[in-house]
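A reminder before we start the practical. When you read a complex entry, don't treat the lines as separate problems. The point of joint prediction is that each chain is placed relative to the others, so the output describes one connected object in space. Small molecules and nucleic acid strands, if listed, are placed in the same frame. In the example below there are two entries. Take a minute to note the order of the lines before looking further.
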Amino acid sequence: MATIKIISFGRLKEILGSDFEFDAENTNELLNQLNEKFTQLKDLKLRIAVNQKIILENTELKNSDVVALMPPYSGG
Amino acid sequence: MLNLKRYDRQIKLQNFGIKAQEKLASAKILVVGAGGLGCPVLQYLTAVGVGNIGIIDDDKVSLSNLHRQILYTSNDIGKLKTETAFKRLSAMNPEVKINIISERITTKNAVEIVSDYNFIIDCTDNFPTRYLLDDVCRILEKPLIFGAIYQYEGQIAIFNFLNQEGFTTNYRNLFPEPPKPGEVPDCNDAGVLGVLPGIIGTLQATEVIKLITGIGEPLINKLMTINVLDYQTAIFEIPKDVNLNFPQNIQEFEKMNYELHCGIEHNDIKNISPSEFNKIAKLPDTVIIDVRDKSEYPKLEIPYLPIPLSELKANINQINNRNIIVVCQSGKRSIVGGHLLYQLLGKEHKISHLEGGINHLIKEINE
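Here is the predicted structure of the whole assembly.
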């Protein structure tokens, strides 16, 4: 289990609140836990970056990793 | 011939000079959308001396645009953005050739229009057009400078440009599938700080200048995010994902329906215009459902049933008519409501929604 920092953007920030610490082993488990805790998050399109690299698949997490959750924006 | 006096302060820059200025003068840039992002992009590209600028937009100036779309004045309300922008930009710098296209970009006209330019700037305000533009730019291998905003935050990236490692990315590498309608509110629904598109648009203009002149480190295959409330900025690397399912060539692209792709159109839910709305609303066995919150104005002046979107499921028993018209402020929640009613009530009912919402209805009445 790793303690990581979560930062989120746009509407996700409204749902999750400002930056906080969380415990998870990998990104899939992290998402499952967040979905349970924040029901509004469910089914929202988002992209995950670990330490500023957008990931393509489930990724193991280490202590003090920074996980960013990004939604798309449409405004112009 | 370059006007050396006009561009003197830029030409003087270290690593810039006449060579870079000449590159700008021979560039052809298409700006898609002349709204919040488009205005600063157009102003700066015109001022710095880009040779050819194309502007495509079919929208007219409205009062609620003016707090952020700084090319337009109160006297321009109701006029085409392209024509107003053309006049103002030509006065700013008559040395720039500006071509305006007062249409919406579609699968029918996109290939021809985009082919005429070397760089494309995404200043659009909706997902169907963003995905359309991303697909056509990828197929035609045109560098795309992407910008998007939400309330106090912005995103910027460069797609379809080879990085040093020899690969390109596009918007679908960032967000492979469009979000569902209503999932991401736009400026009309969520609001936007007036200066935000000014900042993000100026960065898009900066990035295209860097690409053209070869200075600095442009955001190729990188997404930059900015929050103007706390100035938290971050740069994320976008990976290449080869297993994405999108149109592969022009033939496939031209067959796409981006409204359907983004869920804004539904085969079983009819999109109706304000004039159709006035006719259909009078048909027998018809109910109009306003899915806005009860505190939202203006109210409709004809009989309707107010059920906020979040309460629609619980109040489904109130709906007994065969024809159902769903309305909201801008036409986004109504399509979501329409989907929900279709799931709950099925094909027995004829479900339609007012495209562009009550905003569109009022605009038509005023014109």
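Discuss with your neighbour: Chain B has 14 helices and 13 strands. What might explain this?
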